[in-house]
Amino acid sequence: MAGVAESRARNADFWDRAAPGWIRHAERQDALGRPLGAAAIDRLRVGPGERVLDVGCGCGGTTAELAAAVGPTGVAVGVDLSEAMVAAARLRFPGPRFVTGDIETMGVVPGAPFDAAFSRMTMMLLADPVAGLTTIARSLHPGGRLAATVFRDAGAVPWLSAAVLGAAPHVGHLPPLPLGDEPGPFAFADPARITRVLTAAGFGDVLVEPEDVTLDTPDTPEAVAEWLIEVGPAGAAYRAAEAGARASARSGAARLLAPFRIPGAGYRLPTGLWLVTAELD
Ligand SMILES: C[S@@+](CC[C@H](N)C(=O)[O-])C[C@H]1O[C@@H](n2cnc3c(N)ncnc32)[C@H](O)[C@@H]1O
Description:
By secondary structure, this protein is of the alpha/beta class. It has a single domain, classed as Vaccinia Virus protein VP39 (Rossmann fold, 3-Layer(aba) Sandwich), CATH 3.40.50. It contains 11 helices and 8 strands. Strands 1, 2, 3, 4, 5, 6, 7 and 8 form an 8-stranded mixed sheet that branches. α1 packs parallel to α5 (83-92), α7 (158-167) runs antiparallel to α11 (243-257) and α9 packs across α11 (243-257). It starts with a helix and ends with a strand. S-adenosylmethionine binds at residues 11, 15, 29, 33, 36, 56-58, 62, 79-82, 85, 102-104, 120-122, 125-126, 132.
């Protein structure tokens, strides 16, 4: 198993290479990926005038949604490891403030203290999640709220493996698959681990609830395959491959994604999440 330093280096390298795919699909990710964070946004009950933090904000769509909820008297800050995604977020959304940095090592997030923190699909990717959650805790007021979503287990998100397995034989070297608790899409599958991490970071009232959502997309098999490959673990290898290999990767992924296709209507992608809520003691 990789240690924290090695996992951190892998994480930085992975997001550096993944950024172009996420930027390319930012509009689709905002529109179709909304169910991935909607329950956490609802649960956070962010109101006008509040200060809110979005951890792992990517290209900024959820930060902009939170900025709309806090209104002109509030503050929304998005933080992300990827300089390229933060630059894209700033171009897409001039309202919120976006900060580049590693949540695990930044001490406190600029703009702190916040009333609430939100995070969509990021906590399980941290090399040292206690360190990352401790930064979030340090950046909140006493009594501050946290609401986040993470994937459950691989079986609850069948399209993710389908896209990777369909593409992998046609493209080059993929990053190593995570072992055990190493950071990755399913590193927070065990709700007891989530509770342990949040408690160690100083949060109380930790609640981990299953949330089943569906990502509905009217897009063609080609478009859906490309989206899911590019925002997944095979994204960088796919972009580096030559055109013929990329076409084969899209066909391979589309074949394995066929069970989720509704002819004439697009795709329904079942997705099992944990909705995680907590408060600072
Ligand atoms: C799966 S993406 C989710 C992006 C966005 N929240 C969404 O749902 O569309 C994970 C994001 O977390 C960021 N990230 C990963 N590790 C991080 C860290 N240690 N500190 C800050 N951001 C991190 C990545 O750069 C990436 O943008």
